[in-house]
Amino acid sequence: MRALPMAVSRGAVACATPAAAVPRRSLLLSTAAAGAALQSEPIRLCSRSTSGTAKLRASADAAQAVATAFTSKEEAFTWARGDNRRLLHVVYRVGDIDKTIKFYTECLGMKLLRKRDIPEEKYTNAFLGYGPEDANFVVELTYNYGVDKYDIGSGFGHFGIATDDVAKTVEIIRAKGGKVTREPGPVKGGKTVIAFIEDPDGYKFEILERPGTPEPLCQVMLRVGDLDRAISFYEKSCGMELLRKRDNPEYKYTVAMMGYGPEDKNAVLELTYNYGVTEYDKGNAYGQIAIGTDDVYKTADVVKLSGGQVVREPGPLPGIGTKITAILDPDGWKSVFVDNIDFAKELE
Ligand SMILES: C[C@@H](O)C(=O)SC[C@H](NC(=O)CC[C@H](N)C(=O)O)C(=O)NCC(=O)O
């Protein structure tokens, strides 16, 4: 059973604590600003409030005190990098779930993996993909009763589907009535053959040529206002690796592929920075990516220690019992970490 984090009074002051006296759960101080630089030495807090410590108290108040199992930030980041993580699914809202299921199964060749209706919360979920959820990245569609239209916004980019033959795939999609918005051909400024299609709600899918891939649903592309800030966040707060960064000055954008393993075998988060564009409208259609973890509590601690924002404290979901924690990146994109064991039970 996990111990509850210790409460930290707003009047807590920074103090020197002998190493031997450091409790099992330490209190580490982190700046609240997302993307704050790592500090090698944690500042420990004690609850003693004394006179003459106003400045320290003010600085403690201005920062986020984290009750954590870790004794240093380095320990926290090392744990996150070694955690058992992978992208589980991407969650987004659709206006007619049966129409989308038909499009994804008939045009995109996905399988309907499971569907659940939660009438008490007035929504339905459908999980679709190219392989079982215990080993593949999949989509989780959400239909909210009575809502048939969403705003996709300008920040969401696309989902990527890798295929052996883009031209053939696009012809099948077209023949089945799918909307092709960019014909197959080499990507501008590169060699990879790509095409773009749109689903019934207007979500874009990039079809890209990558023969023999084990993970056809391979990318979630989101636009960000500061690429280095976003890379730093996904490295430090999420324990991801920068797999590839490519600048395309001719077309004035840079992309960074972030993930938990090589791009040809694992789904990745593709972050796109368009020169000079620092803000996007995120709409209300795209939801979040879900990431598996062995410990949602430690995960939330790591996010806080790296200056990231936890928008849902770790704990079990009412009704389902699956433990999760939700975080926001510096651009406001959400990720949800899901306990691996609880998730496996959901699939039983
Ligand atoms: C292979 C992999 O790197 C790509 O497919 S990148 C695709 C490329 N992306 C962009 O242009 C991103 C910047 C753009 N301004 C945006 O915000 O989406 C792309 O979409 N190319 C279009 C083309 O027709 O080649």
TrEMBL record:
* Pfam families per UniProt: Glyoxalase
- Alphabetized UniProt keyword annotations: Lyase, Metal-binding, Repeat, Zinc
**What pathway is this protein said to act in by its record?**
Secondary metabolite metabolism; methylglyoxal degradation; (R)-lactate from methylglyoxal: step 1/2
What cofactors does this protein use? Answer: Zn(2+)
Q: At the top level of its lineage, which domain of life is listed?
A: Eukaryota
Q: Name one GO molecular function term.
A: lactoylglutathione lyase activity
Cofactor binding description: Binds 1 zinc ion per subunit. In the homodimer, two zinc ions are bound between subunits.
Record-annotated VOC domain positions: 86-210, 216-340
Active-site residue list:
206
Q: Where does Zn(2+) bind?
A: 140, 158, 206
Would you name any one GO CC term?
cytoplasm
List the catalysed reactions: (R)-S-lactoylglutathione = methylglyoxal + glutathione
Record-listed E.C. numbers: 4.4.1.5
Matching InterPro entries: Glyas_Bleomycin-R_OHBP_Dase, Glyas_Fos-R_dOase_dom, Glyoxalase_1, Glyoxalase_1_CS, VOC_core
Q: Which GO terms describe its biological process?
A: methylglyoxal catabolic process to D-lactate via S-lactoyl-glutathione
Q: Which family does it belong to?
A: Belongs to the glyoxalase I family.
User: By what name is this protein known?
Assistant: lactoylglutathione lyase
Q: Which organism is it from?
A: Brachypodium distachyon (Purple false brome)
